[in-house]
Amino acid sequence: MFKNYLKTAWRNLINTKFYSALNIVGLTIGLAVGMLILIWVQDELSYDRFHSKVESIYKVNASIGTGASKQVWGGVPGPVAAFALKEVPGVVSAVRVVTSYDYSVFRYKDKLLKEDFGKASYVDDAFFTMFDFKLLKGNVEAPFPNDQSIVITESTAKRYFGNEDPIGKILTGDSKDPYTVSGVLADFPANSSIGGDILFSMNVKKKQYTGKDFWKSMDQDWGNYYTTTFLQVRPDVSTKAIADKLTDIHMKNQPGIKPTDGVFQLQALKDIHLYNPDGTSAGIQIVKIFSIVAVLILLIACINYINLSTARSMLRSKEVSVRKIIGAERSQLFMQFIIETVLCFSIALVLAFLLIYAVMPVYNSISGKQMHFDLFNANVWQVIVLTIIATLVASSIYPALLLSSFKPINALKGKIAGAGNATFRKVLVVCQFAFSVGLIIGTLIINKQLQYIHSIQLGYDKEHVFSLPMRAMQDHYEAIKAELLSHTEIKGVSTGNTSVIIGNGSTSDTDWDGKASDVSLLISPFDMDKDFIGMFKLKFAAGTGFTGVKSDSAHYILNETAVKLAGIKDPIGKRFKLHNVDGTIIGVVKDFHFASLKQTIEPAIFSYRPSSWQMFVKTTGKDAPAAIKLVEKYWKQYNANFPYEYSFLDDAYNEMYKSEQHTSTLFNIFAGIAIFISCLGLFGLATYTAQIKVKEIGIRKVLGASVGDITTMLSRDFLLLVLLAIVIASPIAWYAMNKWLMDYAYRAEIHWWLIAVAGGGAVIIAFATISFQAVRAALANPVKSLRSE
Prior knowledge:
13-stranded mixed beta sheet; FtsX-like permease family protein; alpha+beta; elongated; transmembrane helix; transmembrane
């Protein structure tokens, strides 16, 4: 029986090549795109969940300040881990991870390789037992036999040692400090929030405390929030109780700290990829939006199939009637039509697999990920099975029920209940285009926000400025600067400890005249030379800048937000203290954006330093290659053992919005695909309509109807459905995208014309799709049409 079902289904597929092709193409694209999006969603949701203890591991965050100045940091002081283990019940294990910036290059024999910024870290020994990162070589219980031991990843070992056994080999950091490889770690998974290439023992970091500074040791340093601390806790213990206990310990061990500073919170390890330390979205919103988009595209593809199948039911009514008259049961007919759907779906599924394999490299490039579509991967099958079941159920049951329900006598007389009622199909067409219009509106708003980000006045000029670490050049900065400025290709040279694009942390270690005892001011400190403000064209609201004289070391410049939040009136000449240095405010600069536009402008303070570790060079677009070459000359002179490296601030700025760029590109593609699949279905329905109205069209033409009249007749109903879809989709899409924009402190306005453009575009595309078939039908010879009828 099954063989007969299959054979009949295949014949029907072959006999209706045009409609079968439309169905298969629509389903193939819908399935492929739906699965690609769900693979992306699954990848995002899988971050850090591969650890067997993920449910009991938490990251400690710190809340600083109150009210508008309140911030939640992902870093906490070094002693938190040690005290958690000693004094907090329920804490099983503690691990600190501190990024190391001590070395930029490592040498093995004659091979000198540069390590990427932030790819080396100090870790506690428990790092290898708390997490499931696999140590391929080395001792998990004693990964660092001594402080000169390092653990490197498998790919790092390959880069330095090729096929040699790396254990016992020596890597020399910055040509001065030798480290012996004591372990090889499997590369960190792409879906891990923790990564890196080289791991040092935390003891190395501890030894950097000399005992002569304000903070005597790492386990006493409660003032610096620089460690990423993870705690493994017992499942029966309240995480809030642990956090409160840690806060109490902090207050007890750092006399003078305000009760609102250094309040600890625990964040589940599985949440740190998608949520910021303060609980706001760091990506979960995009995951939700993409999940909805995947479902919508699959639904659009299913609606196509349902619409075409039910629309053509009239043409199959006689077949069903004859089958029933000769004894076919309704269940058998139902099964027959289910098999037809399954066959069509199976072909589409195979083609979708091939399509996914073909586009996966491009998809990875667009999404900025390294995902794999492996049919032997259980996770991939979770996505496939979920997609198949949902799509198959949605696209098969209703058409099968409808087709198998015809009453033979009525069907042979052409009286078919249900098939003639096109209301259901109209509802589906409206849904289909509502989804598409919604995606188009979403795409337009995302693109507008990105344009806004790139067009907003940041308050400084970053054009054609590149930066580089100076290293040994710092000792000769003034001479190098004078020499560089003598060349016309160099428009400006300055130095600072951080880029103007993004600040380097914050501190609450501030004081000023009139400061209330319960007020905290978190402020971002910038160290710079006298030319920094001028080169970046920061504007003064009051006062003046640094002049390079010795007394500038006791001068401060604040931004407008700092003055406002501190409540300092007439700030010029007033006292201000940063850390241990009392100084005088000599200037106030207008606010500028030194963080992502998702954040409001925060307080900033400028301190004078004759030279810092980083140099900024301004050139022009045309002279940039020559300027880079000029700086390279001094780099080679003073930093011969280090590779020359520089980066443009424009690139760093764009990097901050890389995620939004990927999202925008993906949205563009998804919206295009959604509208294409929708039009595919509309094209099929228009063809079918023209086919069943061929006699009416012939008569109308004989009676004098023009091509325009025929086209209008065939298009009008469909366009009304598209207009209805626009009316339904517009407010929903506006609401959803407005919610998405709320993540940005500075956002583009949603104008009405965006919705008009989206709606107009949908109407034009739909009309073009329908009119192609309508005009073709209108141009047909009426004599032939009437004769054939």
